[in-house]
Amino acid sequence: MPITYIPNDPRAGQPPNGTIAPHAGRPAGLAGFVFQNVVAEDPYPVGSDGFLFWQCREAALRAVDLWETIDGPLTTWQPGQTLRLIQKGGQPQLNAFYNRNSLSFFEVSGAGATYQSGASTDVVAHEAGHAFLDMIRPDLWSAMVGEQGAFHESFGDCIAILTALEDRATRQALIAGNLLRQSNFVESTAEDLSHGIGALIDPNHNAADPRRAFNTHQWQFPSALPVNGGPGELINEVHSLGMIFNGCFYDTLTNIFDAGADQSEAGLLAAAHTTGRLLAAAARTAPLQSRFFQSVGNAMLLADQDMNGGANAAAITNAFAAHNVTLNAAQMLATTSVLAGRAPAANVGRVTDIITRASRRDLVSKVGKAVQQRFLAKRYSFGSRKVAAVGHQHKVPLGDVSEKLAGVVCLVLEDVLIGVDDGRAAALGMMPSVGQSVAEVQNFVYSLNEAGQIDVDSEGNTETTHSIHRVGEERRLVRTRFSCTCGRYH
Ligand SMILES: [Zn+2]
Questions:
Q1: Whole-number Å distance between alpha carbons of 58 and 48
Q2: When you count CB atoms within 10 A of the terminal residue's CB, does the N or C end of the chain come out lower?
Q3: How much distance in Å is there from the Cα of 425 to the middle of ligand 1?
């Protein structure tokens, strides 16, 4: 029996809704979803619960198909976790979230309209994107630096764009209308949710305009941006800040397409797959650093060397430069500082295989002393090249950010790549400093607090992203979900 399907967003306008055969279920042995409130297949009318179930299911499975095209078989979610697909959560709200147990969507009515976040293929693919990224980079869940949180949001948007581009009618419409290099219904995501924010919350809300990947936003230190601004303005809030990376990604995709011989919809699909594969590979290997957009961009260049012989280097470098993100992959792996102590061992298991006591002392003298400072063993693979790293973790007090956070702390983790220089250990690429990372973390938490994303009293408010957990005697700020409201609703 066919189902009714909206291939993009209910308010994208294109391509037209279709009546399609629904996607088969996931094969045994691969990761899938636990569906809720299953109803029989039927072409239910848009807006009905039956439609919503099949629409949400179809969008989620199409996002998985896209992911497997660019990253290979999806065998697991976060280890040990099943993922429920909840197309209509309890409390009405303009929201959608991923919390390691579910992709949750909501419905709310008002101002003469009903908004169902689970009816938007954009929104469902975005949430699935959080789950894909969490599977390959669980360390980003706990990241406490603005660009790292923003990258998670941007990654969801990139997955939404790539999922949209899997649809042939969508690609044909973009090519026929010569729309790629202008505002269009693919680079703009979650139009219906933004419309709801404008109609039901505040027409001047920053999220009342859809996020756009075709943009001219320029990177600057997140702390230099205001924490609030009008619809679509670039602000220091993770969804908005993510638009910088959306721009880098979309421009890479269109640069690769423009440089290709095939200017048809098939050529566009090939460019989307190339860019998607580079993004997935880079997301796996980008060192966890404060300038994370740059880190991912450099990892895309290294992935391109490995996968395509560097054929897309100019497309990538120019795309990032257009958003004020300067890439230099060689610099990321070049010696910044020679350390005391021998080079890392060939086989890396414990942190002492990577840095000796002498190296550690030297490293601390360079990055600075911090509270509860420790180093964790890590290793990155850039194609065939393996690079050892240490994760530098320390505790940051948050009482100065807000009175509400008096006595609250969080942990920050930043990577230092460790290589060899003339037989000795050497720090490669970006060298963090304790002072800088404390400032980055405090600014990120300030932006969360300003956007109402911290559930200070642990009330279980699903519109927040962070809450305060007791860990022994300590009150620690931790992530509870990636939530796609942008705060400031009440
Ligand atoms: Zn999100």
A1: 15
A2: C
A3: 39
More confident residue, 91 or 248: 248
Residue 435, judged by CB atoms within 10 A of its CB (0-12, 13-18, 19+), counts as exposed
What pLDDT, in 10s, does the model give residues 298-337? 999 999 999 999 999 999 999 999 999 999 999 999 999 9
In this structure, what DSSP letter does residue 46 have?
T
**Helix axis angle, 265-285 relative to 238-259, nearest 10°?**
130
Segment 131-158, tens digit of pLDDT: 999 999 999 999 999 999 999 999 999 9
The residue type found at 101 is N
What mean pLDDT is predicted for residues 104-109? Answer: 96
Q: What is the pLDDT at residue 490?
A: 37
Answer for the pair 391, 414: CB distance below 8 angstroms, yes or no.
Answer: yes
Whole-structure pTM value: 0.97
Ligand 1 mean position to 118 CA, how many Å?
13
How far does residue 298's CA lie from ligand 1's centre (Å)?
Answer: 23
CA of 69 to the centre of ligand 1 (A): 22
Mean pLDDT of 240-266: 98
Question: How many Å apart are CA 81 and CA 158, to the nearest integer?
Answer: 24
- In the reported structure, the alpha carbon of residue 263 is separated from the centroid of ligand 1 by a whole-number distance in angstroms of 32
- What is the CA(8)–ligand 1 centre distance, in A? 17
What's the pLDDT band for 268 if we cut at 50, 70, 90?
very high
CA 326 to ligand 1 centroid distance, Å = 26
Lookup: tokens for 471: 């860990």
Q: Where are the alpha helices (DSSP H) in 220-344?
A: 238-259, 265-285, 292-308, 313-321, 329-332
Kindly indicate the confidence band of residue 487, based on its pLDDT and cuts at 50, 70 and 90.
low
Whether 179 and 284 have beta carbons less than 8 Å apart is answered as: no
Rounded to whole angstroms, the Cα distance separating 283 from 152 reads 10
Q: How many angstroms is it from 248 CA to the middle of ligand 1?
A: 18
According to DSSP, the β-strands at 34-35 and 3-5 are unpaired
* 3 state DSSP class of 146: helix
Token match 């619809």: residue? Answer: 231
Give CB contacts under 8 A, 24+ apart, made by 102-111: 103/33, 103/60, 103/127, 103/128, 103/131, 104/462, 105/56, 107/52, 108/196, 108/200, 110/196, 110/199, 110/200, 111/199, 111/200
- Cβ atoms of 128 and 67 within 8 Å: the answer is yes
Could you tell me how far CA 51 lies from the centroid of its own chain?
Answer: 28
Distance 442 CA to ligand 1 centre (A): 21
